[in-house]
Amino acid sequence: MMTASPPATIVHEFAKNRREIVRTSLYQFEGRDVVDVRVWLPRSRDGQLVPGPKGLTIDRRLLPDLERATQAARAFIRDGRTPETQGSNNGTPAEGALQ
């Protein structure tokens, strides 16, 4: 008999636009602690927020890697670089990315 997982703990959320929010939560899935960053949107029949298909769920041990990825994106933008100014890299990882 499978026991129910404890409910998710919401640790942060912010508005993506007028209708959707991005919610970060922690929960257990199949015995693993995971971090979930997901777009939530209102259900059409009653407006209650429900998780959408767009999101990322990773083992909590990968959280430092996700933080580094976010920091790299921020540095890229802070330095005034954009895909338009850098040109296409044809899917090639940027400097510092795993190969």
Strand order of the largest sheet: 1-2-3-4
The portion of residues assigned to helices is: 10-25%
Question: Mind describing the biggest β-sheet?
Answer: 4 strands, antiparallel
What string, H for helix and E for strand, traces the elements in order?
Answer: EEEEHH
The radius of gyration is 17 Å
Tally the structural domains. 1
**Shape-level CATH architecture:** Roll
* CATH C-level category: Mainly Beta
Number of strands: 4
Oligomer category: single chain
Mean pLDDT: 87
Q: Strand pairing plus helix content: what structural class? A: alpha+beta
Low-pLDDT stretches? none
Number of helical elements: 2
Task: Name the CATH superfamily assignment.
Answer: Transcriptional Coactivator Pc4, Chain A
Beta-strand fraction estimate: 35-45%
Distance between the termini: 42 Å
Shape descriptor reads globular
The CATH topology name reads: Transcriptional Co-activator pc4, Chain A
Task: Write structural notes for this entry.
The chain has helices spanning 63-78, 83-86; strands spanning 9-15, 21-29, 32-42, 49-59. With 99 residues, it is α+β, with helices and mostly antiparallel strands. It has one domain (9-80): Transcriptional Co-activator pc4, Chain A. The chain has a four-stranded antiparallel beta sheet with strand order 1-2-3-4, with no helix packed on it. It is globular and about 45 Å long.
